[in-house]
Design goal:
Keywords: Membrane, Transmembrane, Transmembrane helix. The protein is an all-alpha fold and 147 residues long. The protein folds into 2 domains: 67 residues, no CATH class; 46 residues, no CATH class. The protein contains 8 helices and no strands.
Length: 147
């Protein structure tokens, strides 16, 4: 049996027309482009979704954690308002109230004559020696902060 072209068919067929039992190159090429497009859109979506978290990474730890939780909630619930809230929170620089308040607390402790918190916890954690326990009442009062 010879493979002859039908007499009515044109003699110059386009490149994408294949014969029977031949590999269709255009379909393979289209399938590869489709797979690449799906992966590219997925990567773009993932980068866009993690944008607020990457922006908040340079900010305070608490702000970063809140933005990360909002991103996860929006990812699992498909409610985009959480992503928008995370993006807005990442764009806003929250003021640092902790550092000035710790400084004020340390200054007030110095003025009051009390030991700073780090020294108090160190003194409580250190075991008493026998000589401090056997000392005079004035020495015991000094150890416990009474003058």
């Amino acid at each position: 049996m010879s493979e002859q072209i039908h007499p009515v068919a044109p003699h110059h067929l386009p490149f994408f027309v294949t014969g029977p039992n031949e590999l269709d190159g255009l379909t393979v090429f289209t399938a590869l482009i489709l797979v690449a497009a799906i992966f590219s859109v997925g990567i773009l979506y993932w980068k866009l979704h993690s944008l607020p978290e990457r922006m908040a990474h340079r900010s305070q730890k608490l702000q970063f954690e809140i933005v990360a939780v909002l991103g996860l909630i929006s990812l699992f619930t498909h409610m985009h308002i959480f992503w928008i809230a995370g993006l807005l929170l990442a764009l806003i620089d929250l003021p640092d109230f902790g550092t000035p308040l710790r400084s004020i607390a340390g200054s007030v402790e110095k003025i009051a004559g009390a030991a700073p918190e780090s020294e108090v916890t160190t003194a409580r954690a250190a075991p008493q020696t026998d000589s401090a326990a056997k000392g005079s009442p004035a020495q015991k009062a000094e150890v416990h902060g009474h003058a």
